[in-house]
Amino acid sequence: MEQLRQFKAKFGHCAPTKKESEDDFPGLAKWCSLQRSHMEKKMAGNEMGEKNMPDENENRLRDVGFNFTTCKQQREGTMSWEERFEQLKRFKETHGHCKPSKNERTDEFAGLHQWCIHQRMHLRKKMAGKED
Q: Is residue 52 a contact partner of residue 41, using CB atoms and an 8 Å limit?
């Protein structure tokens, strides 16, 4: 957990890639992946998920700003609207604006560009009276 805090202090997020973390934070990306796996099992009602991700650990990770959504979920668009909105807020904190590039290659913001395009499209339709 301390390594994750140090990583966040350095990079501004809690989604280390292997490349970002290999020098100063060896094994952190793998550990984070394991935490996401434990949480996924917990959410599915799996007994081992409950054992490996007790509420106390989940809360500590959330307090640090840990993102339990996997990169695969982000790429495939299986994130909820709320999860994407939180991702956009993190992007703005990091970059100072809300226009992620389609070339954004960090795992933390994968798929955010396309989601923003859809949000703007829905807003334009609503403003034009073409959407409920």
A: yes
Token pair 């339709």: residue: 125
pLDDT in tens, the chain (132 residues): 899 999 989 888 888 888 888 889 999 999 998 998 898 888 778 888 888 999 999 999 988 888 787 666 665 566 778 888 988 998 898 889 999 887 766 667 778 888 898 899 888 888 888 765
111 sits in the region (left: phi over 0; alpha: psi -120 to 50; else beta) called left
pTM for the whole thing?
Answer: 0.57
C-beta of residue 57 within 8 angstroms of C-beta of residue 31: no
Distance CA 55, CA 5 (A): 19
Could you give phi then psi for residue 102, rounded to 5 degrees? -65, -15
